Every structure is written in structure tokens, then in C-alpha cells.
Amino acid sequence: MPFGQSLMDNAMHTGIYIALGANQAYRGASPLQTLNSAIRALHTAGVETLAASRPWRTPAWPDPSDPPFVNACIKVRTALQPPDLMAALHTIETAHGRQRGARNAPRTLDLDLIDYDRLHQVLPGGLVLPHPRAAQRAFVLLPLREIAPHWRDPASGARIDALIGALPLAERQACRRAGGVLCTAA
Predict the structure, then answer these.
(1) Quick one: average pLDDT of 144-150?
(2) Residue 77 is among the residues annotated as catalytic for this protein
């Protein structure tokens, strides 16, 4: 493979990716409006959105009787290092009414750092990169594929299409495009 092509392929596989989700209204804002508000808050925190997937509607898990989620992924650029970026994500979640309680409970906003330039390690404070469960979640992988079709899981090296193909068919089919648009600028 020519060196230039190798560099281009490597660049296509790197980036900082954040998954967004919400299934409860906050202060009269719909989950989609909350995701857009979070993107604007990220910009204020020094996190520039480079690309955004379309919103996806996904069933709540583990209890599908809970309200469905609106999920999406964004590719960002920032000078923040992973622990500082995670702190910013948590601050934005809290500002949007997120209350940490029961795991997988309905929430007003969920922001997950999926991949930070292909880092594969546990960082101080217990932050694990890449996100340890992202490669098993259709609601992360399907929107991520829209903005990073050549993405590979930094932990396993598996291509995104292979990861999606390994998911149960029912889980993949349950995720549908929701309509609407995510903002990419403040």
C-alpha cells in the first residue's frame, strides 16, 4: 500500500466520537431538542462538532416499556484531554437534568465518550477507552457508521460493519431513523 494511502486510511479511522441519548423531556424540551442543546453546550466548553449523525429512535433497554430513546453520534475536535472531556460531558448532563441513579434508567441526557483518537487504555479515574460496551450496542454503532463508516473498534480492531453484523437482527431492526436534525454549530 502506498504511504499516502496508508496515512489517509489511518486518518479515516481516528477521531473523537461522542454518543448522545435522551428519552425524557427536560424543561419542556423534547429529547431531540435536548441533544441539540447539549451540542451547543459542548461548543461553549471548547468542543467543536465536526459531523453529526441523524437522530435515531431506539427502544429503551432493559425495559422496552420505558419511553424510547433518541440517540445520535457526533465527531468532535477539542484540546481537552479525555478526563477533562468526560468531566465536561458530566457537567453538561447535570445541567440538562441528568440524575444518576439506577443503571439504564430513563434519563434526560446521556453523553458517552466512545472513542478518543483510538486510545485503548484505562485512564486515571477509571475512564475506559474505547467505551467498553459501545461495540455491542446498535444504538451507538448505527449512528456512528453514518459519520465514521471506516471506524474500527480500538480494542478489537473489528470494522464497524462487522460489529453491526454480529448484533442480533431484532436489535438492529429496532433502531430506526427518528427524523429531525442535529445541529453542528453553536
Answers:
(1) 97
(2) no
Whether 63 sits among the annotated catalytic residues: the reply is no
| pLDDT single digits (tens) 49-84 | 999 999 999 998 778 899 999 999 999 999 999 999
Q: Which residue has the cell 484531554?
A: 81
Write the DSSP assignment of 6-71 as a string of letters: HHHHHHHH--EEEEEEE-S-BTTB-HHHHHHHHHHHHHHTTEEEEEEPPPEEE--SS-TTSPPEEE
The catalytic position among 40, 66, 112, 152 is 112
Query: What cell was used for 175?
Result: 433502531
The reply to whether 110 belongs to the active site is: yes
**Of the listed 84, 103, 110, 118, which one is catalytic?**
110
Query: Is 145 labeled as catalytic in the residue annotation?
Result: no
Choice among 63, 77, 107, 117 that is catalytic? 107
Q: Give the pTM.
A: 0.91
SS (H, E, C) 78-130: ECCCHHHHHHHHHHHHHHCCCCCCCCCCCCCCEEEEEEECCCCEECHHHCEEC
